[in-house]
Specification:
CATH superfamily of the largest domain: Impact, N-terminal domain
Largest sheet: 5 strands, antiparallel
Number of helices: 5
CATH class of the largest domain: Alpha Beta
Shape: rod-shaped
Distance between the termini: 34 Å
Strand content: 25-35%
CATH topology of the largest domain: Ribosomal Protein S5, domain 2
Number of strands: 11
Number of domains: 2
Strand order of the largest sheet: 2-3-6-4-5
Helix content: 25-40%
Oligomer: single chain
Radius of gyration: 24 Å
Order of helices and strands: EEEHEEHEHEEHEEHE
């Protein structure tokens, strides 16, 4: 039997920093978590404020993962394609989601040329992503179960077995159980609930 594939995707846990130098130009790289585009922009703005006298603040981010990922990048005044795109290529190659990288450059007086810039920004992005701590993020969906009282106890046991988190319960003519469930467990949970209740109850996902 093949080994079970891990679910979710890796995301940064905290700020990481690294620095590279090339012909007296300093490239100060920072990477951190960003689960929304707004969070990525806030991270970028923080780095700009931290180094207001720098020559450039090049960035790349990936919010989400897989089919739902949103990418962003900027050369911030460097020649087109020499800075933001190499950084984004490193981000994409890392396999991380919900991540933003900012490379702040202090010009050292010697032009590096297009090839030199690509190498320097690539190296800076690689260096900082090698330092960043990660954890696995599994997407969760909000859902509901409307249970007859005779189905409550067995369904409650199944929720615990499959790792669903009950967020609220309302007891009336029946029991409305609001919960969050990891996406890989949605189908198994739906099947177990249908089986236990002989098809009387189905898992209702919020948002369809």
């Amino acid at each position: 039997m093949p080994p079970e594939q891990p679910t979710g995707y890796l995301v940064p846990t905290a700020l990481a920093e690294a620095q590279v130098e090339d012909r007296r130009s300093r490239f100060i790289a920072a990477a951190g978590p960003a689960d929304t585009v707004e969070a990525a922009k806030a991270f970028i703005d923080t780095r700009r404020r931290q180094y207001p006298d720098a020559s450039h603040h090049v960035y790349a981010f990936a919010v989400g993962h897989g089919a739902t990922v949103v990418h962003g990048m900027s050369d911030d005044g460097e020649p087109s394609g020499t800075a933001g795109r190499p950084c984004l290529a490193v981000v994409q190659g890392s396999g991380l989601g919900d991540v933003v990288v900012v490379v702040t450059r202090y010009f050292g007086g010697t032009k590096l040329g297009t090839g030199g810039l690509v190498r320097a920004y690539t190296a800076a992005a690689q260096a900082v992503l090698a330092e960043v701590g990660t954890e696995r993020k599994v997407m969760r969906r909000a859902a509901q179960l409307r249970l007859p009282y005779d189905c409550y106890d067995p369904c409650r046991r199944v929720l615990g077995e499959l790792g669903a988190e009950v967020t609220s319960e309302e007891f009336g003519a029946d029991v409305l159980v609001c919960l969050e469930v990891e996406e890989p467990q949605i189908e198994p949970l739906s099947a177990r609930v249908r089986d236990i209740t002989s098809g009387r109850v189905t898992l209702e996902l919020d948002g369809g």
